[in-house]
Design goal:
With about 300 residues, this protein is an alpha/beta fold. It is about 45% helix and about 15% strand.
């Protein structure tokens, strides 16, 4: 009888997560400047995105577990020169989290469909971390759709061997069932959120209570855990496919790396640059795995200069 009650208590938060209705997409982005959140349906999935500015289009792509907020400091500066489009990928942030395979090919099909839905034939692509993997995939599989690319702490070949971030490695390598991860997120999500942020952000003074709360709310989006775990478990498909084709990239490329990146060390960035013919490299001091958020002035100037038509 006692064991049954314990099981019921453990299952209760899981059932709450499983039965929770999809959250409504808010009309405004919770960032420094309140910007309208747009919605477009791609392959039956609602994709949330920001769309500001005018000129040659540039699409900003977040990384694993990320969201729109990782690009909040790029919106206004880049919009002075470009049409800036920032999306939450399927399974992330404010976008829908469908029950799909989340393979690299499927994510690529979604991204191409997203560009089609917005009437964008060709764009510059900027990807952070795992988002850089999607940018690489577009560059080699659909080069006619990609003008130039920027990889910020981008996805290398041999991810598992090169990961140095303790929590990131644990997330990628875990074999725990989804229900257990959900339970852990329910019980200790706020603490885990702060721990993860401290791993990817070098200057911990930037991790204010408001920043931690926003990131925690993002982690609590209904249906978030399963897509993230599926993406992580699809890493072998990345290694067997697009990781082997990085050397085929022929677009102009810029690799940006945080000097204090704890997830992928500096030598990983240098190796990525060397693999892409003619790629430029920029090191951002006093920055970790998301230098565009931590040192936006430096990164924005690099982007504006490199993306200049």
């Amino acid at each position: 009888m006692l064991a049954r009650r314990v099981r019921s208590l453990l299952l209760f938060p899981i059932l709450l997560t499983a039965c929770a209705a999809s959250s409504e997409i808010p009309p405004w982005f919770d960032g420094l400047q309140r910007q309208p959140v747009h919605i477009v349906t791609v392959n039956g999935t609602r994709i949330a995105y920001l769309d500001i500015g005018g000129g040659p289009p540039v699409i900003l792509v977040h990384g694993f577990g990320g969201s729109l907020w990782q690009w909040e400091y790029q919106q206004t500066p880049l919009a002075s020169h470009h049409r800036v489009i920032t999306l939450d990928l399927p399974g992330s942030g404010l976008s829908d989290k469908p029950d799909i395979a989340y393979t690299p090919d499927e994510m690529l099909a979604f991204f191409r469909g997203f560009m089609d839905a917005l009437g964008i034939q060709k764009a510059a692509l900027v990807g952070n971390s795992m988002g850089g993997g999607l940018v690489i995939g577009m560059a080699v599989a659909h080069p006619e759709r990609v003008d130039r690319i920027v990889l910020i702490s981008g996805m290398p070949k041999g991810v598992r061997e090169k990961l140095t971030g303790r929590l990131t490695r644990r997330a990628v390598e875990t074999s725990a069932p989804v229900w257990l991860i959900r339970l852990g997120n329910w019980l200790a999500g706020r603490w885990l959120t702060e721990d993860v942020l401290q791993e990817i952000v070098y200057d911990h003074s930037l991790l204010t209570p408001a920043v931690i709360e926003r990131s925690y709310r993002n982690r609590q989006q209904p249906g978030l855990i399963s897509p993230l775990m599926t993406m992580a478990r699809n890493l072998p498909l990345w290694e067997q496919g697009f990781a082997r084709r990085i050397g085929e990239i022929r677009q102009s490329a810029l690799v940006i790396w945080g000097e204090q990146d704890e997830v992928f060390p500096l030598e990983v960035g240098r190796e990525l640059q060397a693999t892409i013919k003619g790629a430029a490299f920029a090191l951002v001091p006093k920055a970790g795995h998301i230098p565009q958020w931590e040192q936006p002035d430096v990164v924005n100037q690099l982007l504006i200069t490199f993306l200049k038509p």
